[in-house]
Write a structure and sequence with these properties.
Layout (H helix, E strand, L loop, with lengths): L41 H6 L7 H10 L11 H11 L8 H140 L13 H7 L3 H14 L1 E4 L14 H15 L9 E6 L5 E5 L2 H8 L1 H8 L1
Antiparallel strand pairs: 1-3, 2-3
Helix pairs in contact: 3-4, 4-6
Length: 350
Amino acid sequence: MSTIQKNPRGSSTGIRPPITHAASPANTGLNTRQTVRMPITQAEIEAIPNKVMDHLSTEKYLSQILISLSNEPYMLTHLTLILLHITQLPGNTPMHVIAAIRTVTFILKKHTACEIAETAAKQVVDTLSTRIVNSVITAIAPQVATVLHSSESLVTTLKQADELYHSMKMEHDTRDAEHNEKEESVHIAAEHIEEAADTLFTSVKDCQNALKTLSPSLDATQERINFLSMQMLSMPPSQPQETLRPTYSSMAAAHLPPMIDQAVGRAAIHARQILLDPRPGDALFPPNTSHLHIAKKLKEALSNIRDNTTPAGDIKAVYALHNGGIIVELENENLAAWLQGPIGRTLMEG
C-alpha cells in the first residue's frame, strides 16, 4: 500500500533548509478587486525563477517535502490529495491562501468524480450495448427468418397470381375473338340470305310482271295464229309442198316486247344458277384464285360425282363473290335442280 510521506505540523525531524521565494516582478500577478496590477500571462508566471520550473523539478520537490504518494502516477485524485496536504505544511500560511488551495482542491475533486462517473458510464454503456445488441439479435433472429420465409412465399404467390391473371386474360381474349368471329360469320350468313331473298323476290316479281305483260300478248298471238290458220285453210291447194307449221313458242317469242324478253332471259339464267357458300371460318378456294382455275376444279368435281341419275350438261360460267362464295351457272335447269337437290348437294359437299 502506498503511504503519505509528510512532516506533521509542529513536529521537528531535523534541520530543514529555509524555503526561499524568488522576488516577483513588481506590479505583476492576478488582478483582484483590491489591487490594480499589470496583466500577466501563464507563460510569464511559469518563467518566474523558482525551484520548480518543470515537471521533473515538480516531482523532485514533492518528494523532498514528503507530501506525495510513492510509486503512484500524478492523476487528479493524487493531485487533489497533494493540495490538501499542502494546506497542512508547517509555517505561517495565510488563511486566504489555504482557502484558495482548498477551493481548487474541491473543484478538482468534483471534476475527478465527474470523470470517474463518465468513465464508468462509458464502460457500462459499451458493455451493455454489446450485450443488448447480441441479445436483440438472438431474440429477433427466428422472427427475421420467419419474415424472410413469409416474404419469399408471398413473392412466389404473387408470381403465381400474376401468371394466373395473364392466363385468364388470354383465355378471355381468345373467347372474345371466337365470339366476335362467330357473330361476324352469322352476320355474313344473314347478309347472304338477305341478298338471296332479295334476288329471289326480284325474280319472282319480274316473272309476275312478265306474266302480266305476256297475257295480252299471248291472247293477241293466239288470235293471230287462228287467223293465219283460217287463211291457210281457205287457200286453194297447189303443188304438193311440205309446209312447216309455226309453233306456239316460236310465235310467242317472235312477238315478245324487248323488256319482257330481257326479263324472261334473266329468269332463265337465274334458274340455271346455284350458290356455293363457304363454311364459317373457311374458304372454298384461296384468295386471288382465277376464274379459269375455279371453273376447272368445279368441272372436275362435277365429273367425279356424275352417275346415272345426273342430268346431262356441264358448267357454263362461274362468278366469285367478295365473301368467298361462288355462283355457278350451268347449261340447263335440270342439272341446276339436281345439284340443289339432296342427292346432288350431298355428293357436291362430299
